[in-house]
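Hi, does anyone understand the following?
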Amino acid sequence: MRGLVSFTVLALLLLVHSSQAVYVQDGNLKFSLESVKKLKELMDENKVINPRIVVAKAGYSPCQDKALPEEFQPVCKREDAPMIFERLCM
């Protein structure tokens, strides 16, 4: 009986721990992991791939993309937005 109670408590703790959201932080900015993954997809889709180098398309900003998660909109208003996006996608 004691073993069953211990196992149940452990299972509940693992469940609670695994259901918590994961965040990515850049300085004092904090974004959900799912949003950062979406940002990376958008950034990767907009690169020209050469067999030897990968170069970002000139003038591309994820802020222009309607698929950009809403939580990045405040970043788009900042002058350092391109650097923030690059760091998040590393």
About this structure: The beta strands are 23-26, 29-32, 47-49, 54-56. Residues 21-89 form one domain.
